[in-house]
Amino acid sequence: MQVSRSLFDEVMVPNYAPSAVIPVKGIGSRVWDQNGREFIDFAGGIAVNCLGHCHPALVSALKDQADKLWHLSNVMTNEPALILAQKLVNATFAEKVYFANSGAEANEAALKLARRWAKNEFGEHKTQIIAFKQGFHGRTFFTVTVGGQPAYSDGFGPKPADIVHAEYNNLASLEALISDTTCAVMLEPLQGEGGIITPTPEFIQGVAALCKKHNALMIFDEVQSGVGRTGHLYAYMGLGVVPDILTTAKALGGGFPIGAMLTTTAIAKHLVVGTHGSTYGGNPLACAVGIAAFDTVNTPEVLNGVKQREQLFRDGLHAINAKYDVFSEIRGQGLLIGAALNERYQGKARDFMLAAADEGLMMLVAGYSVIRMTPSLIIPEADIAEGFKRLDKAIAKLAQA
Ligand SMILES: Cc1ncc(COP(=O)(O)O)c(C=O)c1O
Fold first, then answer.
1. Is the Cβ atom of 138 under 6 angstroms away from ligand 1?
2. What is the CA radius of gyration of the chain?
3. Domain segments of the chain as ranges
């Protein structure tokens, strides 16, 4: 069957507006479309393809597991799920793991657990959840309401209650909201969708101290920042604080859908049998790929390589800015990089993304005025150089226009 982009408009729900290009093949950080046109990939499937496309370790883990066992449900556990959980426990603060299929589901579990923990430990009154403006936590109704962009949660009827938003990097605004009725504070330790906003150390330390003071759980949403993205296995490891609950997804499966919620035994014990679940959570195929991704990423070679590559990306963006004067700031950490457009180009991030695609470079936006790059953590230097050549051409055209 021959398919083209127009079929999307005929048979798909119109909640996305995908590009005209339909990719059919990817190797490493290069992708080819139906017509054989090649792209350099600085998008990484939105921080998912941490090892690029079709990494041999992931392909072989998936193929091996495909010949063994695909699915059981949670009526029985399985070896890949237990092994991946053990690895996550060994490498982090966590003592317990819950597997889900996506970031939103991992966050949904975290929020439900926080509410249940607070009810059991302190009583019915402790239900308030504080999150941050511009934060993003997924699209289920609970997680999107916790997210800090009301436009995403408006228009679907009554929202889950007792959720409020403070300003990111503004401790006073959190202090004004938090109290002993707060059950949890949820935040990204590096805001992604909201524009690549790095927290100050004082802010993060302050959030931790306020949570402690008011017996509230600190939930880190590391769906985008986790699994090596910042050059740490998880971003909290570079911040000098330890969350009570951490959620991880995206790069956890390197392109295969999986999410997880990590926490301590004392907190986890409140999700007793029957309180929460998912048919596919802990699926053997997903966990087998997760093990391979985790083992490949969690090495000094890959994590240190992220920091080296970050420098190449920063250098590339600074060089472009020196030539065309388009950015007001280059920010982020590791390979979660944002370039904020200056006054002249406000609201034009999508134009930059489309112009880059025209030149054969895939990249992303974060809001209307920030371009975002979340490439493979092992993107070859030659691909970075080629990608910047293409970006230069794209911006030369935009800057002339
Ligand atoms: C920080 C963060 N949390 C949660 C999500 C939602 O994850 P998913 O789309 O897998 O549900 C995202 C997705 O962009 C994210 O960036």
1. yes
2. 21
3. 5-54+301-400, 57-297
**Cβ atoms within 10 Å, residue 71:** 12
| 3.40.50.261, 2.60.40.10, 3.90.1640.30, 3.40.640.10: CATH of 57-297 | 3.40.640.10
Q: Is 271 helix (H, G, I), strand (E, B) or coil?
A: coil
**From the CB of 94, is ligand 1 less than 6 Å away?**
no
Tell me the torsion sign for CA atoms 163, 165, 170, 175. negative
CA–centroid distance, residue 234 to ligand 1 (Å): 15
| 258 within 8 A of 290, measured Cβ to Cβ | yes
The residues pairing with 218 across neighbouring beta strands, listed in sequence order, are 185
Give, for 329, the enclosing helix (H) or strand (E).
strand 327-333
Give the tens place of pLDDT for each residue, 128-138. Answer: 999 999 999 99
Does 188 sit in the ligand 1 pocket, CB within 6 Å?
A: yes
Q: Which DSSP category does 90 fall into?
A: H
Given this structure, which CATH class describes domain 5-54+301-400? alpha beta
Which residue among 48, 102, 250, 364 has the greatest number of ligand 1 atoms within 8 angstroms of its CB, and so is best to mutate? 250
pLDDT digits (tens, 9 = 90+) for 218-277: 999 999 999 999 999 999 999 999 999 999 999 999 999 999 999 999 999 999 999 999
DSSP state of 224: T
Distance in angstroms (rounded) separating the CA atoms of residues 170 and 175: 9
Q: How many residues are listed for the chain in this entry?
A: 401
CA-to-CA dists, residue 54 to 85, 102, 213, 386, angstroms:
24, 20, 47, 20
Best mutation site among 49, 50, 137, 248 for ligand 1 pocket (most ligand atoms within 8 Å of CB): 137
**Catalytically annotated residues:** 136, 221, 250
The pTM for the full model equals 0.98
H/E element, 297: helix 284-297
- Please state, as a whole number, how many other Cβ atoms lie within 10 Å of the Cβ of residue 392: 17
**pLDDT at position 332:** 98
Separation of CA 393 and ligand 1 centre (Å): 31
Q: Locate tokens 């228009």: which residue? A: 155
Structure tokens at 312: 């190449």
State which amino acid sits at residue 121: E
**Residue 108 Cβ < 6 Å to ligand 1:** no
Known binding-site residues for pyridoxal 5'-phosphate equal 103-104, 136, 221-224, 279
